[in-house]
Amino acid sequence: MTRPADEPAATRYRAFISYSHADDRFSRWLHRRLESYRLPADSNGRAERLAPVFLDRAELAAGPDLSAQVKDALAASDALVVVCSPAAAASRWVAQEIALFRERHPDSPVLAALIAGEPDEAFPAPLLRHGGADFEPLAADFRKEGDGRRLALIKIMAGLTGLPLDRLVQRDAQARQRRVMAVTAAASLLSVVLAFLLMTALRERAEAQRQRADAEGMVEFMLTDLRDRLKGVGRLEIMESVNRKAMEHYASDRNLADLPADMLQRRARLLIAMGEDDRAAGKTAQAAQDFAEAYRVTADLLARQPDNPERLFNHAQSEYWMGSVPFDQGDKARTRPHWSAYLDLAGKLVAMEPGKLEWQRELGYAQANMCALAQFKPVEPDKALDHCGKASRVAGDIARAHPDDLAAQIDYASNIAWHADASRLAGKGDAAVTLRQDQVSLTRTLADRYPRDMRALEALLKAEIGLAMTYSELGQLEPARSAARQALEVSDRLVAQDPDNERWLTLRKRANGLIADPASKGKIKEGTR
After folding, report:
1. Which residues, at least 6 apart from 51, have a Cβ–Cβ distance to it below 8 Å?
2. Contact, 396 vs 412, CB < 8 A?
3. Is the pTM of this model over 0.85?
């Protein structure tokens, strides 16, 4: 707001700010706040701003007569605000400006804004004497140990406007309350649609902590209830879209190391969910990257709290998924360290809380994984039978205890499948066929019971293919072809639901191959998880 050199000196200022160069930053802040302050509305509803306010380095033209311009501005100002500090007390320019203002306006208000030091070392001498007598200026203490910036600023405004301080304080409190109420109302509305607009308005400074809690709760919903429902529908592209939207929440936090442990853990769970979906879509490299990033986080959190069951559980999940990619690639050597670690962690959880069903389930998963791994070349039939037998017992107990839990029933079906393969490798062909038939019977019941849940149909598809391949391995080609035809019918239903699901397309191709040549060899990975 620089005044042109030819502007008339009669321009009026609401106030003149006198300050030392050392206090330039605060003085500029004060200047902005004063000029932006809106006075209470008059009887006609009009509300003027407290402007203009003179600040010499913002106002002076580039003319040679600096002193003349300062004098003009002081003469044209209704009040004087002195920024008080030890530097101001030592400034001869501040002293001259106070003296000149008092000379021109002996009855106008002179306000002191104390920002540093004690009054006896911060108030310029001319500020304390007026008309040959000691003078106590109207002071506002901006220091933290004083009034603080908010109240001190209101005191300055009261002195400049002549309005009662309590009225301005009440007005400021009402304005703050209106702002808080507005933000609270916006946040409440946001929570209703947060599943689809998760990241909207999280950067609002007010109510930031509460909004963060709302967003974290929605991520948890996406990882649990919403994810389970989408799995039932079987649309990978929808699940991927939800995952990426949730990840935007964490992308806004550039320094992840500063996030609380629970938020880091939830982010790791989201990465695992993304990796699981990428794996199902055939994006092996991306899945491995997602799992590796989650693994680093859960390993670090476990190192911080090695006896925390939740940290043990979450890192166990990372160990499983880290082993799943090399397992898919038939790499036994790279899979074994991760799945052995998973078994150890599950054992620790059961040892800590033997009666907790969730930990028993994890131990069953881990045993099933080791059963599957033992069937890779070089085949270890005795180890496979041992691990499979333990896994089947745990999964069977859980399934019988929770007959309405679809996931528990599918887990049991997968364990039956691995047990069947282990029996066949051990030379127990009849037992293998019986177990495979049990698996088909169980999954067919699930598919009938949950006709719209693609997880149940996929479990039936795997069971039919597994039975066909078991017959094929035992040389019973016609039963193998019959089971493969049943599998093809199920695969057609799945592919119709999601034509881009790489896993279902691969299974349908396997079924077609068994129909064409039931003597073909190969192994279907049941996917114990």
Report:
1. 14, 34, 35, 36
2. yes
3. no
